[in-house]
């Protein structure tokens, strides 16, 4: 008898059922389990819970009689109900917790991971060949491009350069309220979404399960058909304008030219290969410039792959890294996404977007939300958990390296060479968010002192001993000696504490 195949809720595309190369049998019945315990353990954003459940149920509807869809309290209970003592295969899960679970279950056979460009063994071989050198993302990215013939002209990168970052860091056009990019694809809700929303309401009323954030009309794809439509829309209409302003922020333009494909990739609705190949095809057809295409390809073939592999390579102890000794708890206003309590316009805008949609782009995550957490000394594990719960594309493998390594520098530099934080001048340069704000990016002290500017210097003062010998931070740390009001800044920020800025 053919073993059943278990699909997790982030393995929803057809490539997870394709036979051959370590895939399940073509005739294998499919098992899907909706475990309520997942939502009891963490207080997820309601829009995220809605998206994941809607996507799972849409996939089950597509599979029809082939799938046994079980709603249970736990995965163990659901699997027992679905197959009893029968044999089951499953592709390598995306979290350590899920891997421990499937490894502990009798009769479950583990198949290779799918949904990524680089197999685990290939990454280990690349990392092992570094001979003690740092696992630099840029070197990894070049290796992936060469190995997959991606955006290459022979043995050289397309356009003559590997990296177009220099061309892709423009501030928004002066006076512009939006970039004027074509609108992104937005799905239409259906009866499955209605059912999910009723179930979430019932869980909140009767099951003791609670959520954070708002669940408006679903904004992100929940089916393969919708995800492909979103990919076509981005590649055909939005990719061309993506590159130059990918780091910009505008108060009235939440999505700019970003792809909004991260949740579809992380649910497994899209395969990364089809995304980067479509982008490259747009460049070769002359419909998108190389800097925009390279920037998008780097996000997927470079950063996404790099983060996935570092999650497994660094091991479970990486989760507990706290090189800067940050232990402050997250304040209630941040946990509750209470944007209305915040006067700093950049932070209020980003927090409101998380509250309303469960998504912001990478600069808001890193240089607004993450930077504030870093400056205030919040516990990196709590910050990681917050990003995991509150973002529709947030999963353990995504957020652990991104937050512990990139955003909070809690690994002491294993992933990045310096803490990513700045004063208000960066936000002022890259956005229109300082206009109309209660604070001024140039002021460190007083009622109008920017919490990012003052917070930046207070952070450097607090971490001076740890950062003084960092080559990329040395000049910034030395700048402390030129601040005549440093003592006043430090006292002011100690008084401010974790009150909403």
Automatic annotation (TrEMBL):
Segments traversing the membrane: none
Gene3D superfamilies: 1.25.40.80, Deoxyribodipyrimidine photolyase-related (1.10.10.1710), DNA Cyclobutane Dipyrimidine Photolyase, subunit A, domain 3 (1.10.579.10), HUPs (3.40.50.620)
Domain of life of the native organism: Bacteria
Organism: Streptomyces cinereospinus
Protein name (database record): Cryptochrome/photolyase family protein
SUPFAM superfamilies per UniProt: Cryptochrome/photolyase FAD-binding domain
InterPro entries, per database record: Crypto/Photolyase_FAD-like_sf, PhrB-like, Rossmann-like_a/b/a_fold, UV-DNA_repair_photolyase
Sequence segments annotated as region (Disordered): 164-191
């Amino acid at each position: 008898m053919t073993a059943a195949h278990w699909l997790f809720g982030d393995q929803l595309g057809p490539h997870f059922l394709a036979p051959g190369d370590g895939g399940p049998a073509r005739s294998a019945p499919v098992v899907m389990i909706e475990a309520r315990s997942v939502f009891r353990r963490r207080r997820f954003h309601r829009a995220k819970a809605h998206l994941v459940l809607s996507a799972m149920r849409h996939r089950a509807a597509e599979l029809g009689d082939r799938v046994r869809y079980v709603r249970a309290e736990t995965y163990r209970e659901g699997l027992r109900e679905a197959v009893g003592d029968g044999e089951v295969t499953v592709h390598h899960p995306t979290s350590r917790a899920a891997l421990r679970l499937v490894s502990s279950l009798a009769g479950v056979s583990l198949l290779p991971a799918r949904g990524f460009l680089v197999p685990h063994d290939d990454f280990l071989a690349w990392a092992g060949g570094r001979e003690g050198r740092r696992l630099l993302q840029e070197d990894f990215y070049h290796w992936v491009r060469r190995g997959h013939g991606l955006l290459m002209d022979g043995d050289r990168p397309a356009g003559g350069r590997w990296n177009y970052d220099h061309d892709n860091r423009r501030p928004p056009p002066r006076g512009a309220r939006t970039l004027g990019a074509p609108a992104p694809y937005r799905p239409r809700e259906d009866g499955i979404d209605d059912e999910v929303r009723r179930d979430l309401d019932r869980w909140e009323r009767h099951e003791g399960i609670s959520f954070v954030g708002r669940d408006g009309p679903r904004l992100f794809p929940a089916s393969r058909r919708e995800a492909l439509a979103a990919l076509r829309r981005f590649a055909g209409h939005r990719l061309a304008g993506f590159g130059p302003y990918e780091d910009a922020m505008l108060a009235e333009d939440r999505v700019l030219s970003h792809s909004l494909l991260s949740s579809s990739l992380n649910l497994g609705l899209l395969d990364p290969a089809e995304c980067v190949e479509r982008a490259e095809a747009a460049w070769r057809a002359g419909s998108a410039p190389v800097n925009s295409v390279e920037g998008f390809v780097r996000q997927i073939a470079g950063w996404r792959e790099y983060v996935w592999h570092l999650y497994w390579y660094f091991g479970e102890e990486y989760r507990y890294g706290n090189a800067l000794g940050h232990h402050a708890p997250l304040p209630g206003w941040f946990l509750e996404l209470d944007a209305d309590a915040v006067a700093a316009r950049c932070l209020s805008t980003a927090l409101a977007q998380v509250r309303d949609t469960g998504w912001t782009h990478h600069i808001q995550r890193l240089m607004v939300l993450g930077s504030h957490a870093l400056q205030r000394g919040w516990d990196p594990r709590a910050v990681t958990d917050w990003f995991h719960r509150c973002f529709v594309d947030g999963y353990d493998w995504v957020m652990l390296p991104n937050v512990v390594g990139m955003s909070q520098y809690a690994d002491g530099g294993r992933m990045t060479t310096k803490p990513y934080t700045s004063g208000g001048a960066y936000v002022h340069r890259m956005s229109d968010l300082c206009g109309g704000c209660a604070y001024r990016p140039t002021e460190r002290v007083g009622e109008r002192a920017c919490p990012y500017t003052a917070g930046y210097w207070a952070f450097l003062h607090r971490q001076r001993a740890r950062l003084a010998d960092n080559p990329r931070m040395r000049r910034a740390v030395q700048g402390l000696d030129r601040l005549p009001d440093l003592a006043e800044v430090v006292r002011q920020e100690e008084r401010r504490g974790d009150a909403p800025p």
